[in-house]
Each structure stands twice: as structure tokens, then as C-alpha cells.
């Protein structure tokens, strides 16, 4: 029994709990709630349920807002603001009622509540346009145990939540409610009628939904039996629809009907003279007649599993060849007029007649050629026409088999064959302006397709001139001391005509190539005089343009073929284009190839008759505008042959480098070698396998072909190599070339650093006629146990295994197609000033794609591709691999060569200067530009390395070059000169050239026929240089002034001037020399009379001539007229007509490209020989003139000293000298023609004039 005190406490507590609980949500409430609409459910779910267990307290009612405006908002934050002490910090429940005492759940209104935010009702959410009621709220709080004297300190806890109940909704695609509960428990016993207090609700509800309604078909039942045994019948099959609701249906039909029935037996009507039809009546059988045959490759290797059929019934295969290439067909009805069709993968189909061996036996012997993909031999050419004229575009392709289908495209759209009735030729009649645009053809054969280059047709409307008569602006640079009055401009507009073609003659409009081309050219030139202030310069400017006959200069490719390891020349090597031998390399490996005008792709094969070098196929780039492009060709020496036994299995390793594992293996099964006759070779084989290892970057230039392939659509795409190898198998006794049957190629995947390349790796062979790589086979992965180099244990490796046959082609490649491509913008300049007006054209830019180490580290270890491009008037865009995720995933090594001379790259040390490199920050830092001497100043400065980070289109700093996306080639080619680009420059001394008739040596089509043209013949350019030796402590500027000498049209008139600073001889102190260009003597452009140019050689400063080459002096005396050389500060001569050599100090070179001619002549002049080449000045050999240029000593007072000692007399003397100097300048102005750049000539003349007039004054001063 409890005592009285305990009983009173229990009753008090019970009364408090009863009052605090308020309205309790029981099952009746839930039942009533389920009967309400969705809004009523929303109202219930938005309220917090009161705490039903434990001792709690309710606050008073609060109403701080009214339902006007947007609704009623009873925010807990606002309630606390107005009633700070009346609401606990963590309420456990909340109750809301209207001011009419209606519970929120019974109002039918959409309300919201949260124990953290409070209660609110929004007017626009209410149905039927209703507004929210006026609510007041109260909160349930646990008692403050610090102030409760009747409370017990009880530790409580919640039990685990029960499982969610099943969803109240039962229909499919419906919404219901799920409920789960928990209990509040105490760790201690509580007095009677007391419940433990836990924070939080004891029940939770959530919305649930049933699965969507579905209707699914069952599998089809089997077909029923056919309604007819033969002839036309029917059969059916059914399926059942299973659905979860009657409101939906299955899509489709439950029943299918199909035609059926075998053909009813009919009598075979096939006529078989001398035989009978086959069982299926598809062919004839002649009993007793046999066809035997053999099928070999062109190398004599038996062709296994080739199909044999009659050409008239190509789909009916009658036999297959066995391992020896033999086949036999019994009962073949054939005669000597019958044709047999033989087919085999990777071989061209062959059709040939049978041969009667006897009455009942027929024989056939077939030799299959390897199939080759199509290749364009004749590309369509550009045409210019007037509206209403016609034009013919031609396209011709070759291949094995020969292409039999041609398709033409206009601006990427297929041309209607029915309308134009084209094949190899597309004829367009009655041309309209809308037919202008780009045209190309696509040739297709059984082996693939190929697209031609693009031809442009330009159609001018009638009355529209094709050539604008007004010349374009063309600025030429003037000497630095030439200041035009009023402008002080260093440039003069000489004008030029635009480089566009004009419509041709109608006599040739239906030919593939227009017989006579017309271009916009110079019609008239005006002679003008440039006023330079103190002197004048003659010049001829273009005044009018019109359509003229096009000038077609010769296009040449020159170079030198040397070994890739030690630069040993390929002497007297054979040069082939296709099957035709076109020339031979020289003793030093030099070669020259003239490119035909219609050539689009120049493929050349260098063959060593002595078999010391492997056959090397090169695809050369050339300048279509004319001139010669120099290529430094590297070839690999053949690997020394090893002896292998043909009857055994043999393994040859690919890529053996010290302390490195081989990249792959060549596995040759036993008895795989064959002679040309098809006989199996069983003796000793001399095997030479030469591997081009991509881990050695010095071998990149020796890569054959241009690493491109043609896809199924005919587009030329790039490859990325993992190694190339050349095979040479010969009979050990008579050196006969042997073929090999199935050979395995194994590639170690450890050397493939980009794992995404492994699935697409393929084996390729090079077509020697086209220079294009063609697919041989795919690779399959295989696990193998090997012993690695430098390892003590065996390990598992994954190899890629490919199969091939060694037939006609002997050069193979381990390549993968790569589609992450970009373009790199590069420009070349005349000097390190990088002036936009001094860009160099015709420079060969080479880019080597490098592969990083594993993990895309920035330190490259292997190269993957080699590309070359020639710079034009706006630089060059080089294709390269790039990556948009990691900047250093691909890197590039870039060089530039002009006429055999390597150009220097922009420096990256001691500080990376964006203004010098040509790329702005921060993109420059991302590309990590480094010149080749970045870490070692002793290295050459002729290359740079960059990361090939694909530009981010969303980053403005990366949208202005120098890396462009692959689809933005036009943007790269037309990029302005101030856009980001990489730079090369020539290392030259101070140099200046001036021509009276302007001419761009980089564009031979800018040549103008004029008597004063420096180069009289655009087909042949003759460069002449004279070597001048200087004794003196300083380098000296030397000028040649070139005038007409003996020709009546040019006598006394200026051709041009040339200035060059002498170059220091590193082996001789106080000695330098200059290789000075002068105007060669010879025929002028009219080819009628020889002009011996009048040459004046004038060194700058205090120079005196002290020597003339005796042989040169003797030659000039023997070829009058002889000029007097009374002045020792200069030298005058009538230029020799004969090409004198280094013994005379004269260097003459003739070439189809003026720059190449000048580069060769300068190299010989520096070397002092007639056939050598040097970039280091050798002043002690091959000299024509010698001058002494000592430093001028100061032997009188300076002006400042004179003003201090005798100012009055000095000022008087200065005034008199100024008056005399002005008078002297006027008298000499009429004869002075040109001046030195940098103002040297003007200063030297002023000093001479001042000195001459000062002598009397000086003597007077002394007498005084």
C-alpha cells in the first residue's frame, strides 16, 4: 500500500497529464480522415501529431497573423519574437484550430506545418477560390525538469521502428499511405499512471504508390501446321496479353498469319547438252568430265580456301582450293569458251577461260593479285567560267580490282546521276552562278572507296569583270634613312594584282585541263620616283591589272637522302614514282624531282641497288605556286641478316634496345617459306627484319609514307604508330627472294601507354605506289608467360596477336586510328623582330607527335606520328593529335627547315615572354612551351616542344589559337597575324634588298616582265655573289649598287641595291667577310641582248681597298670594257657573264627557286668552295676583294671642347659650315640615287664634306 503522500502525488500527476494531452488522434480520426478528399489528406499530413506518452505541457494559444493578403502565417520565429519565454526551444507537437475552434484537419483547407517553422496556410493553394481561415496554434513542450519539484529524473529511450505497413492503395498506379510506430521506454520503473517522456513522434507516415499498370504479351506460341502440303498455304501463331488493369491493353495483335507451303514438284526445264540438271535444277552435270586447277599468289605461294565458280553462275560455289592451292570439280559442263571465276579475301577476283587437257579433263592455272584499295590518279581541277559556258571535271582512279563506280558531289551533296549522266567525267553545260562551289568525286570498287581532292568552279555573271583593274595595296620597305616628306613612312605602295584566275578560252572548255590558263596580272606599270628628302629612289609601280596568260613556274622537290644514324649518303640510289624509274641520287645523296602541274600527291620510292638500305617510300609536300622545296630524307640501314632453318619454328624480336623489353615478336611457323614457283623452301633462310622503334625519336624522320589510311567512306585519316618493320627473306644460296605463309605478329601491350588504343590496334602494310597504309589484320589479346629484361622471375604478359602473309609488300606497321585531332598554327619570320611584313613562305615545318610515359606524365618517351606542312603567306597549320582532358596527354616536337637551313625557334629562357613566343598567357603556361635549349644552353635552338592541349571552347583565352580544333581548319588558315601562333626565325646579319621592279621571292607568280626586273626569267633564277674580306675590329655594312651596263634599254638605270653586314671569322682576329649579292649579267626578259650589269661594291665607313683577286682582275681585263677603279674606297666592275667559281671569289647558282639559289650560293660563299656548304664564315678562302677598315682615330677637339675654349669663333665657323653644307647638298642631290640604311651613307658624306670645308678655317685658326 502506498502512503497518503504518494497517493496525493500520483493523483496530482494524473490530473496534469490528463489536462496536458489535449485531443487525442485515435482510430476514429483515421477512419474519418480516409473518407476525406486528397486536400483533406494533405491537411492531415502537414500537421504534427501530439505526444501521447510521458509528462508534457501545452503552451497557450497564439494568433499573430490574419488571413488577409497571401494567407495566414503563424510562424514559430515570429511567435518567439513576441512571446520570448512562452515557447520552449524544442516543441514535441503542435495543434492548430480556427478561431471558431475547428481543427485544421477538418476545415478541408490545404495547410502546412513544421516544428521548426510553425504553421501556415496560402490562399492561392485553396480549392474553389476559397481563402484561408484565421488560425491560432499552440505547442506541446516537455516540462522544465529544473523547476518541477514533483518530477522524477527518468532515463527514457525509443524502441526500434516497426516495419512499414502495406500501402493503403491496392489498385495499380494509385497513391496511398504507409505507417510505422515505436514505443517510448524507461530504464527505471515509474509510479502508477506515469508514462516515460521521449522527444519526437511515436508514429510516422509516408506516401506510397503502387506499380504502374502494365500490359505484357506472352511469348509467341509455335506456328501451326501449314494449311497446304504444297503450293500456297497459311499458318498461324498466337500469344496472350497479361495486364494488371482492365483499363489498358497490349499493343499489337494476338494473332499472326504467315504464308507457307513448299513448291509443288515441277519438271526441270534446264537444258544441259551432253549432261543432265542437278537435283535442284540450278546447274548442269556432265558425268565423266573433270576440271582440275591450281591457284597461286603472284609470289608463287599456294592460295588456300579460294572459291571456284562458273562466271555465268557466280553465286553457285562449285569447289574450294586445298592447302596446296589445288581444286577438282567432277561433272562440270564446260568447254574452251567457258569462263571460271576465282575469288579469295584480300585478292582481286580473277576470271579466265579453261584449257582442254584431254577429251574428258579440263585444266586451269590461276595467279591471283593482292587486292588494293582505290587510289585517285587524276583529280578534278579548278575551273573559271562565265555564265552560260560549260566545263568538264575529270576523275580517274586505279586499284585492284579497278573501281567501277563514280559519284560526284557539289558542296557535299550528291549530284543527280540521272540528270547529268556522269561516270569518270562530269560535264556541266549552261553554267549558272549557283553552280559555283566545291566539287569532288568518290571512286568505289569491291575493296573500298576513295575521295578526290576538291576542285572549285567559279562562275561569273555576264558583264562582271573577272579581274579588278585597280591594283591592291602592296607596301615595300624603304631604307631606314629614307624619310618621305610629310609622312615619315618607311613603306611605299607599289601595288599588286590579285591572285585569281580568269575565264578561259572556249576552245578548251570541254577538256579535263584547260589548255591555256588566264590569270589576273599586270597590264601596265608606271615609273615613279620616291622622294627620300636628301635623295631619290626610282621605282615601278603597278597602275592597271587585267586578265593575262598565266605564268606557270616549275615546281621542284629537292633534297638529300642520308642514313638516319650517321648521315651516310645514299649514293646512286634509284628513284621511282609508281612502277616508273624517274632518276638517281647523286654521290652526296642529292636529288631533284620536277613535279607535274596536275600532281596532287607526290609519292616517291628510294631503292638502294646495293641492298644496304631498306626501300623507303616518302610522300613529299611541294609548293604549287612554283619553286623548289628542300627535303632532308632519312633512310634506315638494313638489319644484318641472320640464318634461320625454314623447317623449324622461328621467333624474331622487334625493337631490341639495351635494358628495354622488345616491343613485339615475329613468329614464323615451320615450312612457311615459298619460292616464286610455289615450291616450299626447306633450306637456310637469310632473314633481315629492320624495326623502326618509336622509342627512338631520332628515327621519326625515317618513317615511310605519311601515316594515313583511307576509311570505308573514302576519307583519308591519320594513324598513330607503335612501330614499323621491314622484312627481307632470301635463299641462303642464290639470294632469291622468298615469300612466307601465315606469320604471327605479337605486340606487347606493356608498351601501349594509352590503354584505349589496345582494342583498335591493327596490322597494316604500305602500298608502295600510293604511300597509303592498308589494313592487313586485326589483333586479338592473349596471355603469355615471358621473362622480362632485367627480371629474375617469369611473369604473365598480355600480347596482341595478328596474322599476315608476306607477299609483294615488305613494309608493315603496328598502328591505331586516332580521332583526337587538332591543328597547330606556326609562322616563320625573316628575323627575331617578328614583323608581320617579314613572314617567310616556302618553309617546311615538321611536327612529331610524342607519346608520354604511363600516367600521361609530361616527359615524352616515344613518337607516334610525323607531319610536314609548307608555310604560305599566312603561315602554316600542322595536323596533330591532342587531348581535351589532360594537357600533357600528347606533346609535339616542332622544327622548321628552309632550303636545308634550320630556323631558330622563339626562345623560352631566361624568361618565358609571351610577346616573343607569340602566345598569350595563361594558355601559354598550359601548353608548357620549351625551346630545345631550355634546360641545356649547349643544345641547338632549332626546335620547340609543347603540350597539345585541346582548346576549351568555353574558355575565351583558348579560342584565339595557337591550337585549333580539327573542325576549325579554315579558322586556323585565315587567322590574323595578331592571333596566337608559334614562331621560327632566320638568324641573319643586317640585310636589306631593294628592287626597282618589286618582286616577292616567295610567290613566283608575282614576277613581272620588265627590262629592270632583277630576275629576267621566271623559269630560271640565277643568283650571283661576291666575297668581300674586311680587315678591322668591327663588322661593316657592304653595299652593291647595280645598274644597267651595256643593254640600250637599261644602261645607267638602277636595277636595285643590296646591303649586308659582314660576318666575323671566328678563327681569325679582327677579320670578317661579307657574301654580297649582285645583279648577274645575261639576257634580259626579252632574250635578245646580253646586259653586263654595272656593279659598285662600297663598304661603309673608313675603308680602303687593299686587294683584288688576281684571277678576277685578269678576267675583267680580258673581257672589256674595263672600268677604272681609281677610288680606293669602292670597287666597280661590269659583272662577268661566265659563271666563275670560288677561285675568282664569285659564286653563281642557278635554280628554279630564287631563295634556293641564293641559299646554295651563300653556303658556298661562306665555305669558300664551289661545291661545299657552310654557315661559318671562312675569310681566308675564295675571296674576291679585300678592304681595310681601321677604327677612325680622333685627332682634333670635339665641338664641346671648342665651345669652351673659343665660343665666338666656333659659332661663327659653324654658321659658315652650315651655309656651305647646304650648298654642297643641293649640288650633289641630283646625282645621289640611294643611301645606306641606318643613315650610314649620309653621315659619312657629311663628315667628308665638313672635313673638306674646315681645312681653311683650321689653318686660319692656327695662323691666328
Automatic annotation (TrEMBL):
GO CC, any one term = extracellular space
Ranges of Basic residues compositional bias?
A: 1245-1257
Keyword check for Electron transport: no
Which Pfam family is one of this chain's hits?
Ig_3
Q: Where does the secretion signal sit in this chain?
A: 1-20
Alphabetized, the UniProt keywords read: Disulfide bond, Extracellular matrix, Glycoprotein, Secreted, Signal
Q: Does the keyword Secreted apply?
A: yes
* Residues forming coiled coils: none
Query: According to its UniProt record, where is this protein located?
Result: Secreted, Extracellular space, Extracellular matrix
Matches recorded under Gene3D superfamilies = Immunoglobulins (2.60.40.10), Thrombospondin type-1 (TSP1) repeat (2.20.100.10)
Give the residue ranges for region: Disordered.
Answer: 1236-1264
Question: Chief localization class?
Answer: secreted
Q: Where is the Ig-like domain?
A: 374-458
Kindly give the SUPFAM superfamilies that the UniProt entry links to this protein.
Carboxypeptidase regulatory domain-like, Immunoglobulin, TSP-1 type 1 repeat
SMART domains in the cross-refs: IG, IGc2, TSP1
Q: What is this protein called?
A: Ig-like domain-containing protein
Say which species the protein is native to.
Danionella cerebrum
Amino acid at each position: 500500500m502506498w502512503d497518503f503522500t504518494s497517493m496525493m502525488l500520483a493523483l496530482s500527476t494524473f490530473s496534469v497529464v490528463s489536462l496536458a494531452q489535449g485531443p487525442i488522434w485515435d482510430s476514429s480520426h483515421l477512419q474519418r480522415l480516409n473518407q476525406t478528399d486528397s486536400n483533406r489528406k494533405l491537411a492531415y499530413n502537414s500537421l504534427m501529431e501530439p505526444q501521447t506518452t510521458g509528462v508534457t505541457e501545452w503552451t497557450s494559444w497564439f494568433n499573430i497573423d490574419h488571413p488577409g493578403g497571401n494567407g495566414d502565417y503563424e510562424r514559430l520565429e515570429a511567435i518567439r519574437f513576441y512571446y520570448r519565454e512562452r515557447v520552449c526551444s524544442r516543441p514535441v507537437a503542435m495543434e492548430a484550430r480556427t478561431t471558431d475552434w475547428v481543427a485544421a484537419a477538418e476545415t478541408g483547407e490545404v495547410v502546412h506545418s513544421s516544428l521548426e517553422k510553425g504553421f501556415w496556410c496560402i490562399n492561392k493553394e485553396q480549392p474553389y477560390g476559397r481563402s484561408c481561415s484565421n488560425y491560432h496554434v499552440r505547442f506541446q513542450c516537455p516540462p522544465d525538469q529544473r523547476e518541477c519539484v514533483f518530477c522524477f529524473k527518468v532515463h527514457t529511450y525509443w524502441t526500434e521502428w516497426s516495419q512499414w505497413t502495406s500501402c493503403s492503395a491496392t489498385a495499380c498506379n494509385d497513391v496511398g499511405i504507409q505507417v510505422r510506430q515505436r514505443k517510448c521506454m524507461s530504464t527505471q520503473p515509474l509510479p502508477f499512471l506515469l508514462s516515460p517522456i521521449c522527444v519526437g513522434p511515436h508514429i510516422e507516415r509516408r506516401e506510397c504508390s503502387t506499380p504502374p499498370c502494365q500490359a505484357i504479351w506472352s511469348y509467341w506460341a509455335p506456328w501451326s501446321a501449314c494449311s497446304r502440303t504444297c503450293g500456297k498455304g497459311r499458318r498461324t501463331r498466337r500469344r496472350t496479353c497479361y495486364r494488371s488493369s482492365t483499363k489498358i491493353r497490349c499493343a499489337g495483335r494476338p494473332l499472326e498469319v504467315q504464308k507457307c507451303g513448299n513448291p509443288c514438284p515441277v519438271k526441270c526445264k534446264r537444258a544441259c547438252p551432253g549432261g543432265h540438271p542437278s537435283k535442284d535444277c540450278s546447274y548442269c552435270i556432265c558425268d565423266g568430265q573433270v576440271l582440275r586447277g591450281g591457284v597461286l599468289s603472284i609470289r608463287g605461294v599456294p592460295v588456300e580456301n579460294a572459291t571456284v565458280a562458273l562466271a555465268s553462275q557466280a553465286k553457285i560455289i562449285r569447289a574450294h582450293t586445298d592447302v596446296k592451292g589445288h581444286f577438282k570439280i567432277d561433272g562440270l559442263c564446260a568447254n574452251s569458251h567457258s569462263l571460271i571465276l576465282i575469288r579469295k579475301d584480300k585478292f582481286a577476283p580473277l576470271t579466265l577461260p579453261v584449257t582442254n587437257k584431254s577429251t574428258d579433263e579440263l585444266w586451269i592455272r590461276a595467279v591471283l593479285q593482292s587486292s588494293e584499295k582505290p587510289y585517285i590518279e587524276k583529280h578534278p581541277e579548278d575551273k573559271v567560267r562565265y555564265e552560260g559556258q560549260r566545263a568538264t571535271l575529270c576523275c580517274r582512279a586505279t586499284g585492284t580490282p579497278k573501281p567501277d563506280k563514280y559519284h560526284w558531289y557539289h558542296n557535299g551533296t550528291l549530284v543527280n546521276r540521272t540528270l547529268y549522266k556522269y561516270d569518270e567525267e562530269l560535264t556541266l553545260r549552261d553554267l549558272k552562278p549557283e553552280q559555283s562551289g566545291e566539287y569532288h568525286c568518290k571512286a568505289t570498287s569491291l575493296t573500298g572507296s576513295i575521295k578526290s581532292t576538291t576542285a572549285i568552279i567559279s562562275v561569273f555573271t555576264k558583264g562582271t569583270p573577272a579581274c579588278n583593274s585597280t591594283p591592291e595595296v602592296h607596301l615595300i620597305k624603304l631604307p631606314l634613312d629614307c624619310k618621305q616628306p610629310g609622312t615619315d613612312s618607311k613603306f611605299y605602295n607599289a601595288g599588286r594584282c590579285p591572285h585569281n584566275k580568269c575565264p578561259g578560252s572556249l576552245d578548251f572548255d570541254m577538256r579535263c585541263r584547260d589548255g591555256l590558263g588566264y590569270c589576273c596580272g599586270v597590264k601596265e606599270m608606271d615609273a615613279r620616283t620616291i622622294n627620300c628628302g636628301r635623295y631619290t629612289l626610282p621605282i615601278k609601280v603597278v597602275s592597271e591589272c587585267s586578265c593575262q596568260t598565266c605564268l606557270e613556274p616549275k615546281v621542284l622537290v629537292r633534297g638529300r637522302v642520308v642514313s638516319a644514324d650517321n648521315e651516310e649518303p645514299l649514293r646512286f640510289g634509284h628513284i621511282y614514282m609508281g612502277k616508273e624509274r624517274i632518276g638517281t641520287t647523286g654521290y652526296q645523296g642529292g636529288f631533284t624531282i620536277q613535279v607535274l602541274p596536275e600532281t596532287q600527291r607526290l609519292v616517291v620510292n628510294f631503292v638502294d641497288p646495293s641492298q644496304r638500305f631498306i626501300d623507303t617510300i616518302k610522300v613529299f609536300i611541294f609548293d604549287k605556286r612554283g619553286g623548289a622545296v628542300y627535303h632532308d630524307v632519312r633512310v634506315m640501314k638494313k638489319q644484318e641478316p641472320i640464318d634461320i632453318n625454314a623447317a623449324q619454328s622461328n621467333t624474331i624480336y622487334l625493337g631490341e634496345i639495351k635494358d628495354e623489353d622488345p616491343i613485339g615478336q615475329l613468329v614464323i611457323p615451320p615450312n612457311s617459306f615459298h619460292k616464286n614457283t610455289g615450291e616450299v623452301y626447306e633450306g637456310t633462310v637469310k632473314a633481315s627484319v629492320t624495326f623502326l622503334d618509336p622509342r627512338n625519336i631520332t628515327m621519326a624522320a625515317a618513317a615511310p609514307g605519311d601515316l594515313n589510311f583511307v576509311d570505308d567512306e573514302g576519307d583519308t585519316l591519320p594513324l598513330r604508330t607503335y612501330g614499323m618493320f621491314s622484312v627481307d627473306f632470301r635463299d641462303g644460296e642464290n639470294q632469291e627472294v622468298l615469300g612466307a605463309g601465315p606469320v604471327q605478329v605479337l605486340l606487347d601491350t606493356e608498351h601501349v601507354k594509352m590503354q584505349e588504343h589496345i582494342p583498335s590496334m591493327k596490322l597494316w602494310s604500305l602500298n608502295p605506289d600510293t604511300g597509303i597504309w592498308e589494313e592487313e589484320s586485326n589483333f586479338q589479346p592473349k596471355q603469355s608467360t615471358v621473362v622480362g629484361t632485367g627480371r629474375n622471375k617469369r611473369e604473365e604478359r598480355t600480347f596482341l596477336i595478328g596474322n599476315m602473309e608476306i607477299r609483294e609488300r615488305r613494309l608493315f606497321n603496328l598502328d591505331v586510328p586516332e580521332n583526337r585531332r587538332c591543328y597547330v598554327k606556326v609562322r616563320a619570320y625573316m628575323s627575331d623582330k617578328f614583323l608581320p611584313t617579314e613572314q617567310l613562305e616556302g618553309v617546311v615545318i615538321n611536327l612529331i607527335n610524342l607519346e608520354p610515359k604511363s600516367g600521361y606524365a609530361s616527359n615524352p618517351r616515344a613518337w607516334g606520328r610525323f607531319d610536314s606542312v609548307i608555310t604560305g603567306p599566312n603561315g602554316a597549320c600542322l595536323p596533330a593529335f591532342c587531348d581535351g582532358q589532360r594537357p600533357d596527354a600528347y606533346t609535339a616536337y616542332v622544327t622548321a627547315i628552309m632550303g636545308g637551313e634550320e630556323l631558330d625557334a622563339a626562345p623560352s629562357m631566361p624568361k618565358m615572354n609571351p610577346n616573343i613566343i607569340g602566345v598569350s598567357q595563361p594558355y601559354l603556361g598550359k601548353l608548357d612551351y620549351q625551346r630545345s635549349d631550355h634546360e641545356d644552353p649547349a643544345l641547338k635552338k632549332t626546335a620547340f616542344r609543347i603540350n597539345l592541349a585541346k582548346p576549351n571552347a568555353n574558355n575565351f583565352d583558348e579560342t584565339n589559337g595557337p591550337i585549333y580544333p580539327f573542325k576549325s581548319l579554315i579558322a586556323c588558315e585565315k587567322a590574323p597575324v595578331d592571333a596566337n601562333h608559334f614562331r621560327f626565325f632566320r638568324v641573319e646579319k643586317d640585310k636589306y634588298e631593294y628592287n626597282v621592279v618589286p618582286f616577292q621571292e616567295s610567290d613566283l607568280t608575282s614576277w613581272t616582265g620588265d627590262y629592270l626586273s632583277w630576275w629576267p626569267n621566271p623559269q630560271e633564277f640565277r643568283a650571283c655573289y661576291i666575297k668581300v674580306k674586311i680587315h678591322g675590329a668591327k663588322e661593316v655594312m657592304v653595299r652593291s649598287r647595280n645598274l644597267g651596263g651595256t643593254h640600250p634599254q637599261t644602261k645607267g638605270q638602277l636595277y636595285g641595291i643590296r646591303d649586308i653586314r659582314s660576318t666575323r671569322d671566328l678563327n681569325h682576329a679582327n677579320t670578317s667577310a661579307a657574301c654580297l649579292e649582285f645583279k648577274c649579267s645575261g639576257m634580259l626578259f626579252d632574250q635578245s641582248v646580253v646586259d653586263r650589269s654595272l656593279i659598285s661594291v662600297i663598304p661603309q665607313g673608313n675603308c680602303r681597298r687593299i686587294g683584288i683577286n688576281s684571277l678576277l682582275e685578269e678576267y675583267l681585263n680580258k673581257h672589256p670594257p674595263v672600268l677604272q677603279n681609281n677610288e680606293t674606297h669602292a670597287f666597280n666592275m661590269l659583272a662577268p657573264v661566265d659563271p666563275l667559281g670560288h677561285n675568282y671569289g664569285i659564286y653563281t647558282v642557278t635554280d628554279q627557286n630564287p631563295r634556293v639559289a641564293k641559299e646554295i650560293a651563300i653556303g658556298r660563299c661562306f665555305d669558300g668552295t664551289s661545291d661545299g656548304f657552310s654557315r661559318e664564315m671562312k675569310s681566308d678562302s675564295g675571296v674576291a676583294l679585300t678592304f681595310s677598315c681601321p677604327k677612325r682615330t680622333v685627332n682634333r677637339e670635339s665641338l664641346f671642347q671648342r665651345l669652351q675654349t673659343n665660343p665666338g669663333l666656333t659659332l661663327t665657323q659653324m654658321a659658315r659650315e652650315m651655309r656651305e653644307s647646304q650648298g654642297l647638298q643641293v649640288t650633289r642631290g641630283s646625282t645621289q640615287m640611294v643611301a645606306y640604311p641606318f643613315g650610314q651613307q649620309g653621315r659619312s658624306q657629311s663628315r667628308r664634306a665638313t672635313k673638306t670645308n674646315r681645312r681653311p678655317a683650321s689653318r686660319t685658326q692656327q695662323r691666328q
